[in-house]
Amino acid sequence: MQHAPPRLAVEVANLRKSFDRPAVDGLNLAVRIGEFYSLLGPNGAGKTTTLRMIAGLLRPDAGSISVLGIDALADPIAAKRVIAWISDEPMIYDKLTPLEYLEFIAGLWGMDAGVAEKSAHSLLDWLGLAPHAHKRCEGFSKGMRQKVALAGALVHDPRVIILDEPLTGLDAGSARQVKGVLRERVAAGGVVIMTTHILEVAERMADRIGVIAQGRLIAEGTLEDLRAQTGKHGTSLEDTFLTLLAEQDAA
Amino acid sequence: MSTSRPLTWFAQHEFRLAWRDWLSMLTAGHRGRERTAAIVLFAFIALMHLIALAMVAPYAHIAEGIGKVSLIAITSGVVLSFSLMLSQAMESVTRGFYARADLDLILCSPIDTRKVFCVRIGTIAASISLMALLLAAPFINILAFNGGTQWFAAYGVVVAMGAAATAVAVAFTLALFKTIGPKRTRFVAQIVAAVIGAAFVIGLQIAAIQYYGTLSRFAILESNAVVTLAPDVGSLVWWPARAILGDPGPLAAVLSLSLVALAGSIAAFSPRFADHAIAAASVSSGAAHQVRWSQRFRRRSPKWALRTKEFTLLRRDPWLLSQTLMQMLYLLPPALMLWHSFGEGIGPLVLMIPILVMASGQLAGGLAWLAISGEDAPDLVATAPIAPSDTTRAKIGAVTTCIAFVFAPFILVIALSSPSFALISTAGIATAAAAATQIQLWFRAQAKRSQFRRRHTSSRIATFTEAFSSIGWAATAALIAAGTWLAVIPATIAIGVLAGAWLLRPPEE
Hints:
The structure holds 2 protein chains of 2 kinds. By secondary structure, chain A is α/β, with parallel strands linked by helices. Chain A is built from 9 helices and 10 strands. In chain A, the strands form 2 sheets. Chain A has a 6-stranded mixed β-sheet with strand order 6-7-8-3-9-10, with helices on both faces. Chain A has a 4-stranded antiparallel β-sheet with strand order 2-1-4-5. By secondary structure, chain B is mainly α. Chain B has 20 helices and no strands. At the A-B interface, helix 2, strand 6, helix 3 and helix 4 of A face helix 11 and helix 15 of B.
């Protein structure tokens, strides 16, 4: 029997995770294929915990996570094959060169060597890292390190890219490059889920926005949907976001 | 214009940080454990007094009619302790240049940096002296209790040694900066610090092997050749030893000379410390061109990728290499002994087996920490499509390969003399390494590789069980080689230590 291709890229149901207190509390989330989804919320709202659970870095206390139809809790390895995770702190090794780092990642994802090498060189070229391909990362600036991490995330051609504050510390040119590649991935049918505190980025790039507070999704939709929810049309995302949080606090 | 702040204000700040650092080391970073730490510290000091009672009480009256042999023994102890303190001081001074921590804050503030570095050098001397005092105190107290209060003069010598070691370390490191530049200084100073710490013991052992065919360093110290060559009992060379014995003149001279040396190095070098710290900061901004580990990408398994990454990171990090080198240095004397006594029967091999087994446990513990806990990109590895058990197996594989690479030549040479001893050595080395690795797996705590030096403070239980397990397996292997059933006793203790570690392991996340 053939399965129908999934419509949803990521589906999270009744997700719960507690540390000293509940960090994620019965969260439901659905991200469609070919969508740029931005997850917003104040500090400590549970955004990073949610994304870490989807990426397989944390095990939830309860709930389910499905990535492109794969049960990520039952078969985490299959889910990880299609996911890339990028955090604000670049996950690179100081003593490796960018090219060695990409070969290491190609090995971890079990990629074909020819495909990996071609992809690595083209990513390094495109990110302006080709002149530094054979230099150790230890002397790189924050922006260069983040670009190396981005190349690492893209080299295995993931279908779902999860980013936690990826633009922190990047200069305007680097940030534009990162945003460009993310839009390209979405246009090619990929999925991007991103948290950010830079609301203008979410406003301009996201197809849909989810607002999370105290571990729960308090609002979701396009910018217009969110405005409609607050009853204030024509306002900026920043105003809408703050109004939603104030309403949540009042409730 | 620089802001004028009194020296005592900086000193207070530095000592507060040093005290919290010290407390954090004792409590393994857990707040609220101060009482437990105090009880453990008290128990440790009491235990050390008991050990000191057994070791030094018979020598309490040594000062009466002292001869050359005793002076040689005390002086060699002073040189040994000084070499260890010098190693620690060099490590601290190098860290002072390269560890950024609060240096950026200090250097960009409008204060007179001379004062800060003046206090910092003083703090290094104080912390080194304090650590040495803590270790020496039980021995001094026991000697004073049994032989008289003049032994308390030894406390003054310990302080003098801390001051002198810091003065030498500062002068040496700054001389390196001037001659070979900041980039090479970091590497050279770390290697020298590692080598100095072990050099004296190893040097004596090598001399003893060469001339007397034994690993005992006392053989060379008590030999007629050394006693004849040594200066007369009235010589200045023995002043540190005489100071320890409570002679007021030498004590005053040693103490004042060391403090003057420290004050001199502070006065001479603290103004240049800031310039050197800034020069050191620019070292990391230049990315070194690197020859790639392979010419083209090749299809590799995830396990291969992980193993290659571990080897490459270790090979390219001189600091980590120098830290592991410290453990490997102790293998030099047995290697020399093996070469020296080759073909002279199996007697010397019985002495070597426990050294090899002990070294294997210690080396495996360090490497396992680097591979298992010291992962700089834990999220990257965790999000890769590999089962966690496969990741662990690949990392253990990297540790095993390193251990095999280091110890295989020893086993091979032992096998040529005695295949059965080679078998015992192999089993001992493998067991000690496996036990140390298992302890690291139970007590894994994610950290940066740069925290390697502080790995012992993250879990006291892991540190002690790792050491006792290695000692247990070393004793077991030695007794099996000696052909006695008593080997069962240390083996049982080693298994008990492992069982204790398993019971005390933190819960898995």
